[in-house]
TrEMBL record:
Gene3D superfamilies: 1.20.1530.20, NAD(P)-binding Rossmann-like Domain. It is a multi-pass membrane protein. Keywords: Antiport, Cell membrane, Ion transport, Membrane, Transmembrane, Transmembrane helix, Transport. Residues 4-381 form the Cation/H+ exchanger transmembrane domain. This is Sodium:proton exchanger. It is found in: Cell membrane. InterPro entries: Cation/H_exchanger_TM (IPR006153), Na+/solute_symporter_sf (IPR038770), NAD(P)-bd_dom_sf (IPR036291), RCK_N (IPR003148). The chain crosses the membrane at residues 12-36, 48-68, 80-99, 105-126, 147-168, 174-197, 209-229, 235-253, 265-287, 293-312, 324-344, 356-379. Residues 580-607 are annotated as: Disordered. The keyword Transport applies.
């Protein structure tokens, strides 16, 4: 109970304070574990401790690989391929040399642990990317590297271990053939299971309520079967399974992805607390060794940058992107768990210096998690690779009102993107200099054509209520319901739409998009009113006439918040209220004529 509670609490505090969640989870584990000795997870779980960690890592890695759609990297696949192949090889050799000459490990142990230390992994990189909000390209590179290299790091360490045993005469050449056959079997098993599951889903052979649980069970089965054939190949199998399913265009893939993501967040939260709480004071003290500290510094400032800069020569990565990717390489759960396994087998093989592996691994993991966790956002901003500090607004539907709304937001220096399926409707916004995109927001193609990371808020304002609800429902997992707004229901009873299918209602139930459009056509304009000590919000409400629609508030610090149903705003002096109002008596007369015309047309239609 305490492990799960501390993990989730750490995630929540990190979200509230905009801090790296991994760091807080690790600190929480250290506090309740070796420092205050409240819990001892390794002792409490006993023989189940390592299997639970391994199965959890398999689920997390599969969930991450479900996001590896090749369409995402079609424009920059070359640097990613270089990084996960040549870059990983350079990191292995350089890291092994550092472990031998700096940390003082023997060549055999150094080359085993050097292979393992090339991993970054989704358990650490994905939470960091979620917090840092990098631009899509560097974020995709770090994500792909973390997920793809994770299983290869474990396999590389296993290959190095087999080679070391062969060199000292404890293993035959046939073991190498078995190693490669087992790796091929893992890929085939994972890919086959992924393809079979995908085909069953597409042919309707699995009911909706069973899809996520069935995938969950098959992932564990594939992992365990592969690991039984050869230790550490299970990670490769689940990665292959996830990548196959991610590229099969399965209709229900998003539902499974959200389910797995929820499970992964819970598992990551628990595992980091468990692992750090299970450390001993001797391991913590062992970290403060000049050889260990020197090795960590070498990995941070020499090995990682060297592997990225050399492997990406001749690619189209910019200097800024190489610098960021060359700096960010946090190690995580796989490094911690697998190093424990290799420490044991190396000690059994007679390598006494393998005792240092646990302290060395934890020092590297904890150092990289803290240093990279706290600096990824700052470095990204300094290099111009992070999204704006002030998140923008996406507007769905290019009506005249939506265009006016976009223009006033842009005038207030907000990043605005208007999306509509019609080029014609976007013409006015385009002429005003607003950023536009002609396409379907729900299309998978749009996901890869448009970078949505700079935008935190979405306003859905098309003329179809059901479509608005569909768009909102689609983006709830990514943006959160609090940041999704839609115009009022215009046809039928608003109560017919369940609250879970809609966003926050803009400007109250009275103002649907057709009424707002009528006023826009009548010449209504956006008016900015800055409050002061002399002219307060109460004064503004007193002058608030029937032809004035308050739209949003820009607070003095720059943040905006829309007027919406059940959203009680309290603007203060220095804040700006933007309203939609008649600019002149002529506008009011035009408005009356338009409403009269619409009323007559509606009567004729009913008749």
């Amino acid at each position: 109970m305490l492990i799960i509670f501390l993990g989730v609490l750490s995630q929540w505090i990190a979200w509230r304070l905009q801090l790296p969640a991994i760091v807080l989870m690790s600190i929480a584990g250290l506090l309740v574990g070796p420092i205050f000795e409240v819990i001892h997870p390794a002792e409490s779980f006993g023989e189940l401790f390592n299997p639970f960690i391994s199965l959890a890592v398999a689920i997390i890695l599969f969930e991450g690989s479900l996001n590896l759609n090749f369409k995402e990297i079609r424009n920059f696949s070359k640097p990613i391929l270089r990084i996960v192949t040549l870059g990983a090889f350079i990191a292995w050799i350089a890291g092994s040399l550092a472990a031998h000459y700096i940390a003082g490990l023997s060549f055999g142990v150094a080359f085993v642990i050097g292979g393992l230390f090339i991993v970054t992994g989704p358990t650490v990189i994905l939470p960091m990317l979620r917090q840092a909000k990098l631009k899509s390209r560097p974020a995709a590179i770090l994500k792909w590297e973390g997920i793809v290299v994770d299983p290869f790091g474990a396999l590389l360490a296993l290959f190095a271990f087999q080679f070391v045993l062969f060199a000292i005469g404890d293993e035959t050449a046939a073991a190498f053939g078995l190693f490669f056959l087992a790796s091929l079997f893992a890929v085939a098993l994972g890919a086959g299971a992924g393809w079979l599951m995908g085909m069953m889903f597409e042919k309707g052979q699995v009911p909706e309520f069973l899809k996520a649980p069935m995938v969950f069970g098959v992932v564990l089965l594939v992992f365990v079967v592969s690991d039984i054939v050869m230790h550490e190949t299970g990670l490769l199998a689940v990665t292959a399974m996830g990548m196959i399913m991610a590229n099969m265009n399965i209709a229900s893939i998003n539902d499974m992805r959200h389910f797995k993501e929820n499970i992964s967040v819970l598992l990551i939260s628990s595992i980091f607390v468990m692992l750090t709480a299970s450390l001993s004071l001797e391991v913590l003290i062992g970290i403060f060794n000049w050889q260990v500290i020197s090795f960590v510094l070498a990995m941070l400032f020499i090995v990682r940058p060297l592997s990225i800069w050399l492997s990406t020569i001749g690619t189209d990565l910019t200097i800024q992107e190489k610098t960021l990717v060359g700096w960010i390489a946090p190690r995580g759960i796989v490094a911690l768990t697998v190093s424990g396994y290799f420490a044991g087998v190396l000690l059994e093989a007679g390598f006494a210096d393998a005792e240092l592996l646990t302290a060395l691994t934890f020092a590297l993991v904890f150092s990289t998690v803290i240093v990279h966790g706290f600096t990824i956002g700052w470095v990204g901003k300094k290099l111009g690779l992070a999204t704006a500090d002030d998140p923008g607004v996406i507007i769905i539907g290019a009506s005249r009102f939506a265009t006016k709304l976009g223009k006033v937001l842009a005038d207030l220096e907000k990043s605005v993107l208007i999306i509509d399926s019609s080029w014609g409707r976007l013409q006015e916004a385009h002429q005003m200099g607003l950023k536009t995109y002609a396409g379907e927001i729900l299309s998978e193609h749009t996901d890869y054509e448009v970078d949505l990371t700079p935008y935190e808020t979405m306003v859905v304002a098309t003329g179809t209520d059901s479509y608005n609800a569909l768009v909102v429902n689609n983006f709830v997992p990514e943006m959160g319901r609090a940041n999704l707004y839609q115009t009022a229901i215009q046809e039928g009873d608003p109560g017919d739409f369940h609250s879970s299918l809609s966003g926050r209602t803009l400007f109250g139930e009275e103002w649907n998009i057709h009424k707002l459009e009528t006023k826009a056509e009548a010449g209504y304009t956006m008016r900015k009113t800055q409050l002061s000590e002399q002219f307060t919000y109460e004064d503004f409400k007193t002058k608030w006439s029937n032809d004035t629609i308050p739209l949003f508030v820009q607070y003095a610090q720059g943040k905006i918040e829309f007027f919406a149903e059940n959203n009680k705003l309290e603007p203060k002096a220095g804040d700006i209220i933007v309203s939609f109002t008649a600019s002149s008596p002529e506008s009011e007369r035009t408005q009356e004529r338009l409403e009269s015309k619409r009323s007559k047309n509606g009567t004729q239609t009913k008749e």
